[in-house]
Write a structure and sequence with these properties.
By secondary structure, this protein is mostly helical. It contains 15 helices and no strands. The chain is elongated.
Length: about 375
Amino acid sequence: MRTFAYIVGVVLTAGVTIAAIASMVVPRATRSGLAHIVTKSVLIVTRFPLRAMRTYKMQDRWLRMAAPISVLVQLAIYVFLIIVGMAFVIYGQTHLTWKQAAWQSASTVTTLGSVESVNGPSAITVSIGAFLGLVVIAVFMGYLVGLYSAYVARESLMARFSQIGGEPAWGPMVLARSAALSGQPASLLDCENWQTWMADVRLGQQASPVLAHFRSPDPLRHWVTTLLAILDATSLALGLGIAQDRAAAIRVLAEGTITLRVLNRKGVGQERLNWQFEKYVLDVLNGTATPNPAASTKVSDEEWNAAVGVLVGMGAATRASLESSRSTFDALRALYASDACALASHLDAVRGPWSGERRFELPVLWPDELEEISA
């Protein structure tokens, strides 16, 4: 019996240690296992009260704690399972009862050292357990530092973008503000920076999938709606023929499409399709493609008319040019809109214009700047 317990303890301890390293050290998404189960369970529990919350800001205030809690619960479970595994090992090596072995294991893994080992083998086990306890805590601290760095890198450019894209971010607002400030509607589309940002967001969330669930400091700001706004603004600029660097704008669309597909479908192979996406955009712009965008990717007439009013009012485009470019815009938007809307719904992002439905009935929130423009 004790021999069997010893074997179970060794296997359990080794398995948990490997799982901790895989989820916190290895820079690759954990698609199954303990980390995924913990994160998903915490999110399911925290979403129960959302239906009773009438405003998005209430929902955001509640959800902002879900991701941090899941990270802490993940650490607690790793430590608990290591304690259980080491308790089995100690029980198998000594004459101690299960309760005494569990207490010695807890004292060892937490590095309290309040219980002495009873023989030579258990002394070695105690030393290993103390080392594993320190390793898991050290790995967790490093994981938090990396997570925080990726979070800051994601949010810093978004905060600057909110000055031109509005909050919630909206593609037409970018062109309208650019036209008002510089007379050139696409002058504020910094394609190179946004291409780098999209790649960083994708790689950061592949390495730490829980990062996707961390909320922005401002409840009206979210990385999915920001990414969607950038892509919509770029598609509008390409459709209108006002993109200052057409090649860079096409690369932004390809990079954004890859990012959304990888994070929504968890398919790393999508990163190898960049030329296919770029060729599709070129075919649409050259008029050689005959796409048939799905209804779910199209902007409603009401939302489109709102964009037309803003863009015409701010001198970014004429009504005629917008209407003639709509089919091109719809064809380009078909690349990324379904994945963006699916992610926005899954992550309970702010329901900005053109960002699709949500699981719970919430009104569309328009950028605050629209009131100033209308006035």
